[in-house]
Amino acid sequence: MLTKQQAKQAIKDHWQRKLLDIQDRIDALCVPPAERRDAAEHRRHILDVARCLFAEHGVEEVSMHQIAQAACVGQGTLYRRFAHKGELCMALLGENLLRYQADLRAYFESGTPSTSALTQLDHVLTRHVAFLEENTQLLSAAREAWYAKRHPTIFHNPFYTALHQTVETLLQRAVEEGEMPEIDTAFVTDTILAALSIDLYIHQRTEQGFTPERILRGIRRLYLIAPH
């Protein structure tokens, strides 16, 4: 028979495994397609050049023609690889998303049993706001490309799904362990992520002059997550 301490540890392990299972599922979707070495190196070169140009001049100010010239490739070659700038931005964003997911996995793997659900949730939201801040221009361009190609809504995007499952799992644990009152965790998760949509984030940063810290403080207060 399990002791009280062993039972508590088993519960903590259950929640950690649930969070890591979410990361496993998104990792399985992110396996890059097989590609010849020279083709992969060529693609890497174009992306590196584009990333440098975007960092120096901004995404909107850089044309596909400039990228082709800087990468020393023909425009036809560039367009065969990336149909338009939005598609190229999506490729860069995909790499950044993989790093983001790897950061979350490392955090959950290193978590101790004493780390509360709300502390973990605060970490996830802080990391997500940092991701939005670091990738605002790429997210804006990729969003336009996503809708132009008539992709399903963002709610069916696997990265959004993984983030939603992560946030909801942490809210469920917070409720179960008495850190929060009983709430509709699915609805609250929807609302948290709606408040962190890229459209609203850009509006708050550029039109309202909010800082990332102010946005995060508002999210914490709105959802009863105490500042750390």
Description:
By secondary structure, the protein is an all-alpha fold. The protein has a domain at 8-30 and 94-222: Tetracycline Repressor, domain 2. The chain contains 11 helices and no strands. The relative contact order is 0.10.
The fraction of residues in strands falls at under 5%
- The helical percent reads over 70%
- Give the number of helices: 11
Q: What ranges have pLDDT less than 50 throughout 5 or more consecutive residues?
A: none
Architecture blueprint of SSEs:
Layout: H1 4-29, H2 37-57, H3 64-71, H4 75-81, H5 85-109, H6 117-134, H7 136-148, H8 158-176, H9 185-195, H10 198-207, H11 212-222
Helix pairs in contact: 1-5, 1-8, 2-3, 3-4, 5-6, 5-7, 6-8, 6-11, 8-9
Give a quick summary of the entry.
By secondary structure, the chain is mainly alpha-helical. The protein has 11 helices and no strands. It has a domain at 8-30 and 94-222: Tetracycline Repressor, domain 2.
